[in-house]
Amino acid sequence: MKSEISTNDKRLKVTRVFDAPRPLVFSFWTQAEKYQRWSGCKECTKCEVVMDFRVGGSFTQNMQLSVHGETCSFTVTGAYTEVVEPERISYAANFGTVAVRVIVEFFAEGKGTKVVVTHEGLPDEFFGQNVARGTSESLDRLEPLLAGAALVTQ
Q1: Within a domain: residue 54?
Q2: Is 127 helix (H, G, I), strand (E, B) or coil?
Q3: Does some domain include residue 56?
Q4: Which residues pair with 21 in a beta bridge?
Q5: What CATH number is attached to the domain comprising 14?
Q6: Of 16, 60, 68, 106, whose Cβ has the fewest other Cβ atoms within 10 Å?
Q7: Inter-CA distances, 48 with 51, 65, 127, 138, 148, Å
Q8: CA-based diameter of the chain, in Å?
Q9: Is the CB of residue 90 less than 8 Å from the CB of residue 81?
Q10: pTM here?
């Protein structure tokens, strides 16, 4: 399934349904070794994540990107402001020159999980389009990992 993307003013919402139970999906957002396996756009060739997953804890995500044959780095940092397992994660994210609030919600839908990722405080449409693409492509990468993990846990 592809992501549904909606925007209004300075807010972006990306919604995706996964065929995996909510606790499993939630775990892929809370453990650095899992998160770094799927987070990043198509151009991301390597992702390293250090996280202290708790309210008040922080994270650093370093990504290596290959764009038009050139390698570059991109770092996102942040701090967790809310954790309600397995329902919701909120954090302040710093994309270098731009800081936004991110809310990730996990809804049980039968045997699956609907994930809604909301970015608030986007500075402009161009930034929002890039975040939408990166988020959607990351969720594309997450889907097969969840499918494999769901089979193992059944």
Answers
A1: no
A2: helix
A3: no
A4: none
A5: 3.30.530.20
A6: 68
A7: 10, 12, 23, 14, 22
A8: 44
A9: yes
A10: 0.93
